[in-house]
Amino acid sequence: AIAATASPAAGGTASCTPNPADYDGTSTCSATPTAGYTFSAWSGDCTGANCVLNNVTAAKAVTATFTRNSYAVTATASPAAGGTASCTPNPVDHGTSSTCSATPTAGYTFSAWSGDCTGASCVLSNVTAAKAVTATFMRNSYVITASASPAAGGAVSCTPNPADYDGTSTCGATPNAGYTFSAWSGDCTGASCVLSNVTAAKAVAATFSLNTYAITATAAPAAGGVASCTPNPVDYGATSLCTASANTGYTFMAWSGDCTGAGTSCTLTNVTAAKSVTANFGYNIAASVSPAGAGTVSCTPNPVAPGDASTCPARASPGYVFAGWRGDCAGRAGTICTLSNITSAKTAVATYVPMALVVPSRGGWRATLGR
Q1: Phi, psi at residue 301, to the nearest 5°?
Q2: pTM, full prediction
Q3: Rounded to the nearest 5 degrees, what angle is found at the Cα of 283, between the Cα atoms of 278 and 287?
Q4: For 213-262, how does the pLDDT look when each residue is reduced to its tens digit (9 = 90+)?
Q5: Among candidates 250, 349, 370, 249, which has minimal Cα distance to 291?
Q6: pLDDT of the residue at 67
Q7: Among residues 212, 144, 150, 203, which one has the least CA distance to residue 175?
Q8: Each residue of 327-368: pLDDT tens digit?
Q9: pLDDT number for residue 228
Q10: Is the pLDDT of residue 133 over 70?
Q11: Cβ neighbourhood burial of 182 (10 Å; 0-12, 13-18, 19+)
């Protein structure tokens, strides 16, 4: 008899033919592995890979040794920098299980398994062949909240947004009409904003200032009065009211520059730039008659723009005769006084005498005084 055994018993079967073997005969033994096992070698009265018993003259014993199959699990990270993937046990015995885990590196997050595992977890059950699994990692990205203060001041953007872990994002601020960029605040400060080595969500704010514009208000001449505008400076798009007040001896005449018109007030609307207004004052000519009621005198123009001239005609009332000029017209001959290149307030006094006090004289008439 030939005792043929398998080691382990679950590993397969061993048999010899013929069995029993005749004296001095031959028997050939074979080993058949069960699923999941592989024949390894013979031991006992046979050794090596094959077993043929020759010249049998006694009982024999042979053992077929089997080894349980094991399978490698290839665990890969994608991308390689994203983390590591490992499976335990690895290799894994036939019909048993292996559990795989994924560990992200800093700045990455595990996404999903692919290959012989899918989804969020990976357990390889009843393994009967080599396996391959891939752990996919996603590089972390962080949202940058960019805002404008005030909201109407302008637009703010950061590129790229979101920013990759350990990456860089550059933020820009574009002011709206009437505003000027002032500074950054939040995760950026100062005049420029570059977020470097981003490892978390960020928030930046661009501060804008509403533009203001100065109004230059001038009196011409300076001694003629006062010109002022309120408010001054004035906000972009807003309104300022300018007023003119004449000093004694002067009269407001008109606005020039960014205001026009003869009214003593001027409204600048929708101001979007610096403005300049001039309140023009004229010199008054105080025209009077002496004695009162004896005649008339008027000056045209009155008031008079600086450097201009004015003509003052005098007319006697019935019973009176023009006698001469006083004031700034003193020494002028005739009933018409012309004041030229006027640069200050003037007086023109037309004097008259009663007709009864006038007597003929050679070449005309003369007044009799003291009678």
Answers
A1: -80, 165
A2: 0.65
A3: 155
A4: 999 999 999 999 999 999 999 999 999 999 999 998 899 999 999 999 99
A5: 349
A6: 97
A7: 150
A8: 999 999 999 999 999 988 899 999 999 998 765 555 555 544
A9: 98
A10: yes
A11: middle
What separation in angstroms does the CA of 162 have from each of 11, 141, 202? 58, 6, 10
Count the neighbouring beta carbons within 10 Å of the beta carbon of residue 370.
4
What's the rounded Cα separation, in Å, for the pair 165 and 104? 13
Residue type, 312: C
* Residues whose CB falls within 8 Å of the CB of residue 366, separated by 6 or more in sequence, listed in order: 358, 359, 360
Task: Kindly report the backbone phi and psi dihedral angles of residue 222, in degrees, each rounded to the nearest multiple of 5, phi listed first.
Answer: -60, -35
Sheet holding 60-68, edge to edge: 2-7, 60-68, 37-44
Which candidate, 257, 313, 247, places its Cα nearest to that of 283?
247
Q: Residue 132 above 60 pLDDT?
A: yes
Nearest to 143 by CA among 195, 81, 208, 206: 195
- Residue 228, both tokens: 């002022």
Say if CB 155 and CB 147 are below 8 A apart.
no
Average pLDDT over residues 70-97: 97
For 219-248, b/e burial (b = at least 16 CB within 10 A) is bbbeebbebbbeebebebebebebbbebee
Q: Would you say 211 and 153 are in contact if contact means Cβ atoms under 8 Å apart?
A: no
Residue 356's SS3 state is helix
